[in-house]
Amino acid sequence: MPVYSEKVMEHFMNPRNVGEIEDADGIGEVGNPVCGDMMTFYIKVDDNHLSDVKFKTFGCGAAIAVSSIVSEMAMGNTLEEARKITPALVAEQLEGLPKNKYHCSNLGAQALNKAIDDYLKKQGKKVKSKRRGKNEKE
Amino acid sequence: MPVYSEKVMEHFMNPRNVGEIEDADGIGEVGNPVCGDMMTFYIKVDDNHLSDVKFKTFGCGAAIAVSSIVSEMAMGNTLEEARKITPALVAEQLEGLPKNKYHCSNLGAQALNKAIDDYLKKQGKKVKSKRRGKNEKE
Amino acid sequence: MRRAYLDNVATTPVLPQVLEAMLPYFRDAYGNPQSIHEWGDQAREALDDARSKVAALIVAQPEEIIFTGSGTEANNFAIKGLTLARQSQGKHVVISAIEHFSVLHAAKTLEKWGFEVTQVPVDRYGLVDPEEVGTSIREDTALVSIMHANSEVGTVQPIAEIAKVVKKRGALFHTDAVATTGSIPVDVKELGVDALSLTPNQFYGPKGVGALWLKKGARIIPFLDGGVQERGRRAGTENVPAIVGLGKAAELAKEEMASRMAHLSALRDRLIEGLLSRIEHAILTGHPTQRLPGNASFCIEFIEGEAMLMLLSHQGIAASSGSACTSRALKASHVLTAMGLPAEIAQGSLLFSLGLENTEEDIDYVLEQLPPIVDRLRQMSPLYSKFLKGQQGGR
Amino acid sequence: MRRAYLDNVATTPVLPQVLEAMLPYFRDAYGNPQSIHEWGDQAREALDDARSKVAALIVAQPEEIIFTGSGTEANNFAIKGLTLARQSQGKHVVISAIEHFSVLHAAKTLEKWGFEVTQVPVDRYGLVDPEEVGTSIREDTALVSIMHANSEVGTVQPIAEIAKVVKKRGALFHTDAVATTGSIPVDVKELGVDALSLTPNQFYGPKGVGALWLKKGARIIPFLDGGVQERGRRAGTENVPAIVGLGKAAELAKEEMASRMAHLSALRDRLIEGLLSRIEHAILTGHPTQRLPGNASFCIEFIEGEAMLMLLSHQGIAASSGSACTSRALKASHVLTAMGLPAEIAQGSLLFSLGLENTEEDIDYVLEQLPPIVDRLRQMSPLYSKFLKGQQGGR
Ligand SMILES: Cc1ncc(COP(=O)(O)O)c(C=O)c1O
Ligand SMILES: Cc1ncc(COP(=O)(O)O)c(C=O)c1O
Q1: Residue at A96 is within a domain
Q2: Can you give the CATH number for the domain in which A30 is found?
Q3: Ligand 2: does its nearest atom lie under 6 Å from the Cβ of D102?
Q4: Which DSSP state fits C34?
Q5: Strand pairing of D295-300 and D349-353?
Q6: Spatial separation of the C-alpha atoms in residues C358 and B128, rounded to whole Å
Q7: C70 lines ligand 1 (CB under 6 A)
Q8: B124 touches chain C (CB under 8 A)
Q9: ipTM, two decimals
Q10: For residue A91, is it within any domain?
Q11: Tens digits of per-residue pLDDT, A54-75?
Q12: Number of structural domains in chain B
């Protein structure tokens, strides 16, 4: 086994918030199966807070644990708070990651950020298009 | 232990004919302590036969066993017979020798031959000098 | 919890008879074979005996066996030592694209030393084409090295056929037989090679020992410089207990070869058939028939190998994978890639390598445990949901 | 018949506690440390634990320890790997004239690769002069390698002093500490070296394993190419049982160092004094005080080593010799020669190397058995009769 912390193992074995959100307010997909890991984050935003966060992840134990803890850390955060979830913070919350798995903690933070970006972009569009259908895809 | 045959071991443990002959008819010394082995053969000749053969040897187990068996093989031989004790024959009589010990069987045969040469040389001298003292050293 | 070790490619347990044979050489007959006394004699005799047993296993002469410290060392020794001994004749080397890293990276080192290396490709089953080896050989080819079998995908190469081509072209031929020696018949004359690497940690012998078989008369430059051990060809105090273990493992392998092969291939087929019938979108990798008796290797689509291994391990099952995430370098197995498998499919690599101590119950346990693990990971996989959506869309 | 093993320089028996520590790793925890499952975890933990113990013995960091397959490999790795990593800075190497063959012959290989090697001489006691090392170092010196102690004559070098000179001249410094690690205190910081070789087959651990300690930050080119083991610096399936044995042997050596040294040096002095007082024309070789605790080495004049060893062995006594006849190459020990001993005296080389399991009774047995053996061989020796005649003549 790669030398994973107990926390990583716990999140890997019991990942929180796995799934998709049908009517997500934002979706962020990062990584590439060719490189080994791919993550998709789904968020619901209510009153500037992340009212729901879900993910799907293709990848190693670390990638799954990272996705799980990022979803847990982000849940209920304001968008600004969620932006502050850095790779270093993710690794710290997981009680460390093996060196060659650092990139997974990057991916988790990136995917969440991308989902927020996606939400804001849609918001912008919606503002522009005067709120024609809240959950419309681009 | 070098892979010595039982015959080598037996001759090494119980070497025959160790010693010097005070009034030898011929003495043959070969080898060099610097190279690891040195042998001195002493012979007594009676009526063209080797009536006594003795040796002293500085060297490895093989060198001692070779000296011993050569002395045994030569004992009682005519000079002509003794000349036929070749290194190959010595090795054969010893039921083989490790490759890197072949030179020891050469030394044994050489030392005996040198002692015979020495005897003949002295004989020649004696013939020339009309037998002035049989055991005279050169 | 049930435990099932199906990672015999990583290393095999040492058989009780092998360990028993080794034990006296740690504390009783612990001498150095070079020593001139009884302890040395005991050790030397043990060495000679082991050498004969290894030679018997591969139908060779005892004096052609050079003991090494590992399969990796045997390969480094062969690749570097044989080419350096022949470099005046040419500085070109031919290997296959799916060699073990101990050949591949040794060849990289040769490149740094001014050699040129040609990699012969393999087909989708991992097979090398003898013709292709023939056309890669040049006037200045010093050495050809093609592995006997690849342990990741189990494909066994047509070494004897390749040897004919190599001989015709006048090159020297080495084969890495680490994956085959002790598992399937290996006869150096039938194979027609000049040098062959092996290690018992793949056939129930100890780690830390291996051997290079080198055809009488072939020249080699020592790799480990030092003392005069192994007739000046491999320096270092001989690892007597391990060499004795190698000898015993070789003896047992020879005696039991047929029954072991029958046992393993029955289990293997049960696992392959069971898995393919229970899990959709799973691919058997390697050759369907020319494969090692204990090798059942797959790619499970839409999910990644390390995650599978971790969940299997949680159920007490040991297996391995060639996925990027399971490698330190985070690169998918060069073997799977060379066979033309797309990288995202190679990520789902899963290898069960069976051993003597496995039973039908082990196989059935895996067949029971694996499908829910695959399901669980697929439920998490964005690739799988995309696939399902695509299918729906397609319908 | 009484048996007394006094050839611990050839190899030591494995201590019961060491063997016991190793045993679980053959058949139970037999996994490969690289594997992603429980068996792999067990093996990896065992490896980490052993690494810490070895590091503790030499006062180093665990991650600075690279496990190898032998002391010979550690030396080859250091000599070849450290110089190749620095060859752009220079292709000159300094070693002593009495290095073990695994350093000496590795340096010969460097010469073939275009390096230049300077051999620093030793004095009659086998000591290297730090000044002389200093003056041999040039602008283009990539590496200096001086052994910590020579196992044939027991002389311990002033490594810390040499290190100061080497550092001043800006070269890298490796020491072959195979003869000292586990026997006398070895502290890499106090020694001031950059790299150090060791193997437990000299301190009651197993054969087939060794280690290179490499100071953090020092660059080295891998010697064994292949997999990613030892953080990419030494390829090949880790020999877990042997590494565990090394760890345990290191732990015990550290704990018991003082008492072992006291035990051995008392026996050694008893043997040296007893032998010199009982046998005329015997010379103690090596340094009278700066010597390994277990080393009692002599030259017995007028007779040859192999013959002594054979007769000693007949009495159940194991020893060794540096005579030409005891070497495969039929050359007297380069160590004795470098110390200026005339070749015919070197032929009488006789080395008793004591171990933990030796007792006063062993020593007394040797002191009882050796004199008649020496007498017997001298009675056969033409050199001795010449000497006696010379003496008579002289009187
Ligand atoms: C085909 C092949 N060659 C060589 C090796 C290297 O053997 P070792 O790691 O025991 O040195 C392996 C080991 O897995 C292998 O599978
Ligand atoms: C000083 C020294 N260095 C290196 C070695 C080589 O060790 P090994 O033969 O265990 O590889 C020895 C072995 O006797 C030695 O005495």
Answers
A1: yes
A2: 3.90.1010.10
A3: yes
A4: T
A5: antiparallel
A6: 93
A7: yes
A8: no
A9: 0.93
A10: yes
A11: 999 999 999 999 999 999 999 9
A12: 1
